[in-house]
């Protein structure tokens, strides 16, 4: 499993959906709160050129937003989508 980093904020609905997706699928991740961690916010912006969250770094592949199909494909997770 690749190293997974999520740049998020506590009030972001899509950030929480992504973290719930990881937990439901047993995927370990590191979460950085870019609302309070200015160094990690800068790191996120340097990686992506944008300030929107979530930004998910899957072993160097960047996923912007909670794109469940892309995350499933990237992580090779096969099951039904959340909400189906």
Provide keyphrases for this structure.
84 residues, alpha+beta, four-stranded mixed beta sheet, 3 helices, 4 strands, 37% helix
3D architecture notes:
- The protein has 84 residues and is an alpha+beta fold.
- Helices cover 37% and strands 20% of the residues.
- The protein is built from three helices and four strands.
- The chain has helices at 13-24, 38-48, 68-75; strands at residues 4-8, 30-33, 55-58, 61-64.
- The protein has a four-stranded mixed beta sheet, sandwiched between helices.
- Helix 1 links the parallel strand 1 and strand 2 (30-33).
- The radius of gyration is 12 Å and the shape is globular.
Summarize the biggest pleated sheet: 4 strands, mixed
Number of helices: 3
SS strand fraction: 15-25%
Distance between the termini: 25 Å
Q: How do the SSEs run, as a string of H and E?
A: EHEHEEH
Number of strands: 4
* Quaternary state of the chains: single chain
Strands ordered across the widest β-sheet:
2-1-3-4
Structural class: alpha+beta
Morphology: globular
Mean pLDDT: 92
Flag low-confidence runs. none
From the alpha-carbon coordinates, what is the Rg to the nearest angstrom? 12 Å
What's this, in brief?
The protein is an alpha+beta fold and 84 residues long.
Secondary structure topology:
Elements (H helix, E strand, L loop, with lengths): L3 E5 L4 H12 L5 E4 L4 H11 L6 E4 L2 E4 L3 H8 L9
Parallel strand pairs: 1-2
Antiparallel strand pairs: 1-3, 3-4
């Amino acid at each position: 499993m690749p190293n997974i980093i999520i740049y998020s904020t506590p009030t972001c609905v899509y950030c929480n959906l992504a973290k719930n997706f990881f937990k439901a699928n047993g995927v370990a991740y590191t979460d950085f709160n870019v609302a309070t961690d200015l160094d990690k916010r800068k790191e996120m912006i340097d990686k992506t050129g944008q300030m929107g969250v979530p930004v998910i770094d899957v072993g160097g592949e960047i996923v912007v937003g909670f794109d469940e199909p892309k995350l499933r494909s990237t992580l090779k997770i096969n099951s039904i989508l959340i909400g189906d």
